[in-house]
Each structure stands twice: as structure tokens, then as C-alpha cells.
Amino acid sequence: MKAIRTIAGITAAGVLALGLLTACTPTDEPTPKPTESSTSTPSPTPTPTAAAEPASDTDAIAAGYATAQEYFRIWDEIVNENPADTSPIDAIAYESAKDAVVRNAANNAAKGYTVKGNVKFTLLDGQSYAAPARGNGVTESEYGQPILYGCVDYSEARAYDKDGTAFPPPNPSSVKVEVIARFFKAESRWAIISYTQDLESTECAS
Questions:
Q1: pTM for this one?
Q2: Residue 136's pLDDT band (boundaries 50, 70, 90)?
Q3: Whole-angstrom Cα distance, residue 45 to residue 35?
Q4: Mean pLDDT rounded to a whole number for the chain
Q5: Distance between CA atoms of 196 and 177, rounded to whole angstroms?
Q6: Where are the alpha helices (DSSP H) in 28-153?
Q7: Distance between the two ends of the chain, CA-based, in angstroms?
Q8: What is the pLDDT of residues 23-33, one digit of tens each?
Q9: 122: which strand partners?
Q10: CA–CA distance from 65 to each of 14, 41, 58, 109 (Å)?
Q11: Residue 205 near residue 189, CB atoms below 8 Å
Q12: Residue 190, strand partner residues
């Protein structure tokens, strides 16, 4: 994916999703390992229900997409209700995927910005695929790392400054993103490990 530039200046898109990060596609086990403790990046909290290992490309994309939907739902919940507390995202994301949420929420909380409404994530046809999930040079799950390409639509979300004045709607209102999910076989769960926006693409523009 092309290098991504962070949006400069104050825009609705910046308030809605400040975490515009350049991320490379991980092919090996992310750092820190989810099962290890870390003072800088806490491990995601395991989900209550054990997930089945994907048995095909189709299974992996479907499970990864469901995980991504939950990721965006929690992100919306944080920025809509309490941007000072990003702990709910720990259950489903880390590394650049978690950083995007934390940076977005911290910026909004510090400047008194508020957000109302939810984003919508949809997949682009025929672009997503599943790669092997690898750890320590060993394939842990043949279809365990789906790379998802889709559009995040901000048209139903509005951003406001500290005085309650609405920012102009983002233009374009929909942006192409790459979301990478990961199946952790030892823990039978899914998480989002990478989130990147492609601001140069016009595939999602409306």
C-alpha cells in the first residue's frame, strides 16, 4: 500500500479518525505477542467465546470482516461516549489498529471535540484475501490473517468543536482502508492488528 500522510489541520475527517497511520503488512507474529505482558502495549483481552479456526479463504474473510465490524463499533462507542477511556478497544485490537483509536480519542478529548453518529465499513469486491498467520517462522494457521480492503463511510457521523459548532463534513465522505485481522490459534480468538487509510485512492470517493 502507498505511504499514507497524516491529515494536517483541523478537518471533520481528522476529528472522526485521526489515526491515519502508515502500516506494513505483517507476515510474522506481531510484537508484542498477545500472550506476553508489555508496559507500552497491553495485550488484547481474550473474547468470551472461542472462535473456530478458518478452514478457507472465504471463512477467514468472513470472520475477519465480522471482527472489523466490531472494531469499528467499539471505536464509535469510544469517540461518541467517552474518548477519555479507550480501554474497551483492548479487547479486540492492538499495534497500529489500537494506536489509531487511542490517538483519535486522545486528540478529541484534549481539544474538547465531540462526535455523534457511526461510521460504516464495507468491503470492496474481490480485493480481500487470507494470508497465513505465522509466529516464530512457523505457520500457525493457514488462513489466519485476512487482509481486508474496504471503504469507511463517515457520512452518518458529525464532528463538533468545543463550542458545539459542527465541522464541515469530510470530503470525500468515504475513504479506502486496509484492515488486517489475525486469528490467534492458541487462544481461539480474533483481533485486528493493523489499520491503514489510503488517502490517495478514489475507489471509495462519493
A1: 0.79
A2: confident
A3: 10
A4: 81
A5: 6
A6: 57-81, 96-111
A7: 21
A8: 333 434 443 33
A9: 151
A10: 24, 24, 11, 29
A11: no
A12: 183
C-alpha cell, 58: 472465504
The rounded distance, in Å, linking the Cα atoms of 128 and 146 is: 7
Q: How far apart are CA 117 and CA 94, in angstroms?
A: 24
pLDDT grade, residue 5 (50/70/90)? Answer: very low
Residue 134: enclosing H or E segment and its boundaries?
Answer: strand 129-135
Element (H, E) at 177: strand 174-184
For residue 9, how many other CB atoms are within 10 A of its CB? 5
CA dist 163 and 8 (Å) reads 21
Which has the higher per-residue pLDDT, 98 or 17? 98
Average pLDDT of span 98-111: 93
Torsion angle (degrees, nearest 10) of CA 83, 85, 90, 93: 10
To the nearest 10°, report the CA torsion of 130, 96, 87, 60: 0
**Short-list 96, 116, 91, CA closest to 18:** 96
Distance of CA 192 to the CA centre of its chain: 6
CA separation for the pair 45, 184 (Å, rounded):
12
Residue 203: what residue type? E
Q: Which three cell numbers stand for residue 193?
A: 492488528
Average pLDDT of 63-90? 96
